[in-house]
UniProtKB/TrEMBL annotation, chain A:
It comes from Sporomusa termitida. PROSITE patterns: TRP_SYNTHASE_ALPHA (PS00167). This is Tryptophan synthase alpha chain. InterPro entries: Aldolase_TIM (IPR013785), RibuloseP-bd_barrel (IPR011060), Trp_synthase_alpha_AS (IPR018204), Trp_synthase_suA (IPR002028). CDD domains: Tryptophan_synthase_alpha. It catalyses: (1S,2R)-1-C-(indol-3-yl)glycerol 3-phosphate + L-serine = D-glyceraldehyde 3-phosphate + L-tryptophan + H2O.
UniProtKB/TrEMBL annotation, chain B:
Tetramer of two alpha and two beta chains. Belongs to the TrpB family. InterPro entries: Trp_synth_b_CS (IPR006653), Trp_synth_beta (IPR006654), Trp_synth_beta/beta-like (IPR023026), TrpB-like_PALP (IPR001926), TrpB-like_PALP_sf (IPR036052). Its cofactor is pyridoxal 5'-phosphate. The keyword Lyase applies. This is Tryptophan synthase beta chain. HAMAP family: Trp_synth_beta. The beta subunit is responsible for the synthesis of L-tryptophan from indole and L-serine. The gene is trpB. Keywords: Amino-acid biosynthesis, Aromatic amino acid biosynthesis, Lyase, Pyridoxal phosphate, Tryptophan biosynthesis. Its EC number is 4.2.1.20.
Length: 263, 394
């Protein structure tokens, strides 16, 4: 199932989507495999597999720490590819890759898109690739059938919004606040005008991420989005308490989205 | 140069999160407008001349020239500027730009502390709040500069992530900037980072080369060689830029070979790296086969950066500038040599440029003219050098 199909199913059943981020190879690949299975069973709709980079400009301390540890333990793109291949055998949840541009560039853009698409990935998320720089990656993604996910930030101007929406595929990743990834208090109601503006430009699903740290926050964000993305709060539980804690947390968000949001 | 997308050939660009893009576009628009604004330019010139101490001297180093027995070596004395290095040229320009844009806060990264001190100084001068990110290891190596910044009212934030040096301080400064993007201007300290920074830092530093051209002409000399050290590459770009199309001037950029290129412990990204993306730009970079950035090493905190300005990458590929590297040991010898021969203690960064004279001078003709950019003074490095070569200096 690709991203569009997943969101069509969600929309048909009137549910909000739940996207979970996990760093590949943290603390090891076997744990990542177990964690993906756990979030799938807990009701996640899509998993972002993060390929670690030494200098993750858009990430806060929790995800940066996971990347550093994964690299120290020998994480590579090749091993992530093997992980994805295994995941496609053992799970049915749609997967997207989140990584920084230099990782893709050094692996070879066409080779990267082709290999991961073949392994079963449906989307590619590159946080340091603004719409001005996507021309070199877009054809490879199109060729491989991957959605190259675009970002909208609270600072995005109306003319940029139009350009970004015109080029978007899969879903739009709406950043909830300026800053890096990490749990924080956000007044989601303030984002209403931006989200309305985005909806005016595109019919694609909108996923909101950055800062969502609790089921209650997920519900707040879901008022304005079709899906929520949770990363640092999940990685914090994985770091401190392990896979079961991740399962419970994901399940709590799922239930909150299904019940309290009245969706 | 650069083109609309901030590219010098294939290098440069804007590889940053979407949150930052509108700020970069706003910065470029403001800069392009102010560049043509005579009032703004005369304000920059006023502070450069009356406050920082421009123009700096082009000093004929007679004893150093005599030491090599051929050629005439001149030193472009950026070390004589207020705060002790060329960094103040860019800090003044960008602080005035920030003020014009209505920004109240500035954030900066620093390696050796010279850029941090320059930013702290202009923040005090123009009444801006200032936070400087500095690697924990560099804070130890450059304790005096840390004290200076704090004395000037700047918050110095230690960075312990990664290698605790300039690379990580830059990443943290970008993160801080992303978070406070509405009211904060990021003063990048070198010709690195996303467009328009490589262009605007270059423009603010180009005064170095402009003065050299005028001073050489006034001295009735003909310039043959320019030599400058390269970390990110701002003093080198500043002195080379004026002469970029003058093929009669050989331009030599000297990187830090650290403990030796073969040891892997160095900062020579142009000499020994390959193109990749770090801190928002595509440029030569020290990285492994997976694209992970390799922490750089140099005895000089101002040079241990694994990347380099994208325009230098372009100059390398087009052959406009020749890039080379010298070791810590060679730089230390040059540090002591200039002190003894000329009574000038250079920054360890500048000592790398001076060290290359050992290779260059035997190849020069007796009447050729060499200008070395003395990018900064060595006060900040004296204590550390004393630890390394105490016996020699004593």
């Amino acid at each position: 199932m690709n991203i569009a199909e997943k969101f069509r199913t969600l929309s048909a059943t009137g549910r909000k989507g739940l996207i979970i981020y996990l760093t590949a190879g943290f603390p090891d690949y076997s744990t990542t495999l177990q964690a993906v299975k756990a979030v799938e069973s807990a009701g996640a709709d899509l998993v972002e597999i993060g390929l670690p980079f030494s200098d993750p400009m858009a990430d806060g301390p929790i995800i940066q720490h996971a990347a550093t540890q994964a690299l120290a333990a020998g994480a590579t793109v090749g091993k992530a590819l093997e992980l994805v291949t295994l995941l496609k055998q053992e799970t049915t949840i749609p997967l997207a890759i989140m990584t920084y541009y230099n990782i893709v560039l050094q692996f070879g853009i066409d080779k990267f898109a082709g290999s991961f698409a073949k392994a079963g990935i449906t989307g590619l998320i590159i946080p340091d690739l603004p719409v001005e720089e996507t021309a070199v990656v877009e054809p490879a993604c199109r060729q491989a059938g991957l959605d190259l996910i675009k970002f909208i930030a609270p600072t995005t101007t109306p003319d940029r919004l139009q350009t970004i929406c015109r080029q978007a595929a899969g879903f739009l990743y709406c950043i909830s606040s300026t800053g890096v990834t990490g749990v924080r208090q956000i007044d989601y109601d303030q984002l209403a005008p931006l989200m309305t503006a985005v909806r005016g430009e595109t019919g694609l699903p909108l996923a909101m991420g950055f800062g969502i740290g609790s089921p209650a926050a997920a519900c707040q964000a879901a008022k304005y989005a079709d899906a929520v993305i949770v990363g640092s709060a999940v990685m914090e539980r994985l770091t401190n308490s392990g896979v079961e804690a991740v399962r419970e947390f994901t399940s709590a968000i799922r239930q909150a989205l299904d019940k309290e949001c009245g969706c | 140069m650069p083109n609309d997308n901030g590219r010098f050939g294939q290098y440069g660009g804007r590889f940053v999160p979407e949150t930052v893009m509108p700020a970069l576009i706003e910065l470029e628009a403001n800069y392009r407008r102010l560049k043509e604004d005579a009032a703004f330019q005369s304000e920059v010139d006023f502070y450069l001349n009356e406050y920082a101490g421009r123009p700096t001297k082009l000093y004929y180093a007679a004893k150093l020239s005599q030491h090599y027995g051929r050629g005439k070596i001149y030193l472009k004395r950026e070390d004589l500027l207020h705060t002790g290095a060329h960094k103040i040229n860019n800090a003044i320009g960008q602080a005035l730009l920030a003020r014009q844009m209505g920004k109240k806060r500035i954030v900066a990264e620093t390696g050796a502390g010279q850029h941090g001190v320059a930013c702290a100084t202009v923040a005090a001068l123009f009444g801006l709040q200032c936070s400087v990110f500095m690697g924990a290891e560099d804070m130890e190596r450059q304790a005096l500069n840390v004290f200076r910044m704090r004395l000037l009212g700047t918050e110095v934030v230690p960075v312990t992530s990664g290698s605790g040096t300039l690379k990580d301080a830059t990443s943290e400064a970008i993160r801080y900037w992303v978070t406070h993007i509405q009211d904060t201007h990021y003063i990048i300290g070198s010709v690195v980072g996303p467009h328009p920074y490589p262009m605007l830092v270059r423009d603010f530093q180009a005064v170095i080369g402009q003065e050299v051209a005028a001073q050489i002409a006034a001295a009735g000399e003909k310039l043959n060689y320019l030599v400058a050290c390269i970390g990110g590459g701002s003093n080198a770009m500043g002195i080379f830029y004026q002469f970029r199309d003058d093929l009669s001037v050989t331009k030599l950029g000297v990187e830090a070979a650290g403990k030796g290129l073969q040891t892997g412990e160095h900062a020579a990204s142009l000499t020994n790296g390959k193109p990749g993306v770090l801190h928002g730009a595509l440029s030569y970079l020290r990285q492994d086969s997976e694209g992970q950035v390799i922490p750089a090493y140099s005895i000089s905190a101002g040079l241990d950066y694994p990347g380099v300005g994208p325009e230098h990458s372009y100059f390398k590929d087009t052959g406009r500038v020749t890039y080379t590297a010298v070791t810590d040991e060679e730089a230390l010898a040059a540090f002591a040599r200039l002190a003894r021969l000329e009574g000038i203690i250079p920054a360890l960064e500048s000592a790398h440029a001076l060290a290359y004279l050992e290779t260059l001078m035997p190849q020069t003709k007796p009447d050729e003219v060499i200008v070395v950019c003395l990018s900064g003074r060595g006060d900040k490095d004296v204590q550390m050098v004393a630890q390394v070569m105490g016996g020699l200096a004593g």
